[in-house]
User: Fold these one by one.
Assistant:
Number 1:
Amino acid sequence: MMIELTTILMFCRALINTGAPSKLTEKATRRLADKLCCTDFRLSIAMDACTASARGADGVERVQIEDKTSTLGGGNFFVLGKLLSWLMKLDIRESSCAQLQAELKQITACARIHPNLVYHLSAGIGSAIVGFAFGADWKDLLLIFAAAFLADWLQVVLTKRTALFPLVRTLIAIVFGGVIAAALTVCLGSAHYFINISAALIFFMPGLPIVSGFIELLRGNNSIGIHRFTQAVLTIGLIAIGEALAMLILPEATVVTKAISASSQFPLWLSQILGCFSTAILAVALTLYFSIDRRFAFVYAGGGFLVQLVNVFATNVLSVSGYVATFIALVVLTLYAYYYKAALGCVYDECIMPPYYVAAMIAIALFPGVGIIRTVDGMIRIARSTISSLPASLVTETVYYASSTVVSLLALVFGIVLAASLFTED
C-alpha cells in the first residue's frame, strides 16, 4: 500500500505543478486511487505538503503517508494534458507501481515540448508586440525583443544548471532583462524607457497565478489559493526590484522623460486596429510559450483580438474610464472562453484547461506594466531627493501611478473572476 500511495502523491504533485485547478487535481487523483484499488482514499493538500491515506484491497490496513515537497507551483499545460491522457489510458494490469512512477517522471520531465529557441523567440516577439501596442517605435521594438529573448534564455540556463530557488532564478532573469533593456535604451538614445523595460519583462507578469489564486480562494481551496496568490504578489515585487535596479543605470535626464502614446505614430483609428491584431498575435505567441496545444491557437487569437476590440469600444464609444473598460473587456473575454469550451466539447476537454485560464493568459496584454515601472521610477526619484528638495508633485504623481496600477489589477482580476463564478467547474 505504501508504494501505491507514493505513486498517487507523485501524480498529485505533478498535476498541481502544472497549474491544474484543485477540483481537477482531486478528481484525477481519486481516479488513480480507484485504479490502484485504494479504498476509503483521502487526500489533503496543504501549503507545504500533500497527505494521502487509504485502505488496501482487503479493506483492513490503513496507511497514511505525507509528501513534504512543496506542490504548489504552476504552469505547463502540455504536461497537464499528457498526465490526464496517461491516466485515461492507464491499465494497471500491465504495469507495476515502479513502472508507473518511471512513466510519471518521464512525462513531467517534458517541461518544454519545443526547442528552447522557439520559447525564446515567442517571448521576444510577444514582448515586442506589447511594446508596439504601448507606442514603441521600430528601434525600440528591436531592443525589447533582444532583452526579452535574453531574459528567457537566462532563465532556462539557470533552471538547467543551477539549484537556485525558483523565485531567485526569476529575480536574476528579471534583473538581467531589465538591465539589458535599460542599457540598450541609453545606447540607442531612445526616450521611451518606461515602455522598453516594462514590455521586455511582460512575460514575467503573474496574471495566471493571481486569477487562479483568487478563484481557488472563492471556492474554498485556501491552501492552493493563498499560495498561488502569494506567489503572484512576490513575483510582482521581484519585477519592481528588477526594474528599480535596471533604472539605476539610466542617466537622470532619461528618467524624467515621458512615454508617448501609440496614437502619436499612427492615426487613432489605425493604431486601434493594429492594437487588436497585435494582441491576437501576442495570444498566439502565448500558446507557444505556455505549451498550449496548437489546435487552440485560433481560440487564443480570437480572444486576443476580442479583448482589445471591447476595450477600445468601451473607452471610445461608451466613454467609460480605462479601469471600467478593462473590467468589461475581461468579462467578455472570459465568457468567450467558456463559450468555446461548450462549442468544442470533447475536443476542448482533451486540453483539460479551465476557460478562465485562457482569459488570464490573454489578459497579459492589458497588464499595467507601465504603471508598475512609473511607480518604481517615482519611488527611486523620491529616494534620491532630500526632504527640502522633494517636490510635492513628485509624491502626488507616484501615489497616483501606484493607486492606478492597483485599481487596474483589481479590474483585470475581478473581470475574470466575476465571469468565471457564473459557471461550475467540473
Number 2:
Amino acid sequence: MRPAILALLGCLFTLGCAQEPQYTELTLKGDAIAKQIQFGLAGTKGELHADKVDPDGTRHPGCWIQLGPALHDKRFEFSLPEKKVDLGYAGTITYHVADVRLGVIEVAAKPNEFVLTSTFTSEGVAIKGEHSSLGGAVVPGIKLTNMRLVVHLKPVVVDGSITYDDPRVEFTADVDNTFIPRFSVMGYTVDIIDAMTHYRHDLCLAIQRQIQAGLEDPGRKAALADQIRAGIAGQLGG
C-alpha cells in the first residue's frame, strides 16, 4: 500500500508588508500520523453486555467503550436492543448480546482519510436467550463470527487547526451456522434462523450508531484530534 499523503498549505507573511502572501506546501506522510493516532488509542477497551436492570425496573447501559490513557480515558456507555420472540401460550424468549469484547485497534492511512479497524470477540456465545419463566437453561446461545469494526475519519482544517469530520462507522458480524437451528419449549418449536434474521442486522446498526455518536462527542473528538495534530507536529519538528 502506498503511503497516503496529507497536504496542508501554510501561509507565510509579515504584518504590514504590502507584497502578496507567499505559500509553502507541506507534504506530510499519512502513515506517520496514523501511527500517532494508533499510539493514542493504545489501551482502548470496550465490552458489550445486556443492560443491568434494578428491581424497580431502572435500566443501566451494559455496553461501554473507553479510550486509552493518551485520550484521557474518555468513556461512553450505551445500550443495545433486545429481541423478543413471542411463543404465545409458551411464554416469551428474550435474546440479548452477552460478553463481547473489543480487540486491539489498528490505524491505517488511506487516500483522504484514516481508517481504524478492530475485531470484537466472545469466548462463548455472543447472544444469549432467556425464557420468561424457565430462564436461560432451555434456550441455546448463539455465536457470532467475523465481528469487525471499521471507522473512517476524514481529516479537515477548522479555524486553522487539524481535526476530523464526518466519522463513518461500520460494524459487521455473521451468525455461526453450526448452532442448533430449532429447539422446543413447552411443545412450541422455535426457529432460531427466523428469529435472528433481523436481530443481527439491528445489532450491527445499533453498534454503528452508538459508536458514531460517541466519536462525534466534542470532548472525545478534541482528544482524538490532539493525536492527529501531534503526529503532524512530530513530522514538522523532525
